[in-house]
Prior knowledge:
By secondary structure, the protein is an alpha+beta fold. It has 11 helices and 7 strands. The strands form 2 sheets. It has a 5-stranded mixed sheet with strand order 2-3-1-6-7, with helices on both faces. A two-stranded antiparallel ribbon has the order 4-5. Helix 1 crosses helix 2 and helix 8 (about 225-235) packs antiparallel against helix 9 (about 235-255). The radius of gyration is 31 Å and the shape is elongated.
Amino acid sequence: MTGYNVARPARPEDRRAGLFERVGAFLTAHGLSPDPAHYAFAYQVVAEPQGQLAQAVAAITDGGIRLSRGDIEALGGTVRAGGVPAQADNDEADPDAREVLVARAREQVDGMATIMESVEAEARGFGRDLAASAEAIRAAGQAPSVAIEELARLTGSMLQRVHETERRLADANAEARVLRIQLDEARGEARSDPLTGLSNRLGLEERYAQIDDSQPCCFAICDIDHFKLVNDRFGHNAGDRVLRAIARTLAENCEGHFVARLGGEEFAVLFQGADIDTAAKILDAARGTIADKRFRLRETDAPVGVVTLSAGLAALSSGLSMVDACARADSALYAAKANGRDRLEIAPVGGEIY
């Protein structure tokens, strides 16, 4: 018996499982849903690592940048609904689309009100007809068979109206379900930053209002150092890719906490259930990860250089408003910039920065 294990050739099923796992990892890394079109694109990249498509993807994603919708479509792939949510074009949510949804919601409410008014009116009319018919039957002394025939006629007419009303209500409910989904999506879009997929300031304000004062909580503001130079030297498309990469890095390193884009090159992190030391360790690790990245310009492969992040962190006291939390974290951020950038500064409760 030997003292070592003889390597066994990989079985076909093992190779298939490994390929499947790599395809899944690719879809996850680039924010793609498991749609057949996305799977086909990922499979071609993963199964042929030396192929032209895989090399093109490698060149685009060098430096930790994730594929955008435009990238995938330019490479011959197809992006289905729900794919690449964090890579949406840098356009504000369409105000016309919001107006259409609001108008449809109003029409839906008006339509439901009209149906209910119709039901109420028809019920009153049926009651009047029934009472009048009964009175006429009594006054004329009609035979029971005639009376039953008249009641059957009235009841049948009312049932026909009830069935028609049920159909109208079913149609209205189906439309309401679709509209509710669309309104929920619009509400989410209104609270999301279209470039990075993070929450925007409105989303941050809503989350801040839900803070549990019984737990420790910290708030940070982060700013990309000298970001204007990236835009000026390499263009806004390259700048947008850097913003997306940094947003993703912050979200990954601060998993379990709330990361938002305040606007421009500024981000905020709300650490819920974390004391100041824990929050500082998490945030400083994210800062270090960003500083270690090496961004390259995809069009020419020229190096963008090192991109760094400065951050200010503040522990939140009970009842502190978001305006005051921003002011305290921002004062610490200012100190980080003044002290050389690419660093984290903490704002003490007393006010001075150390």
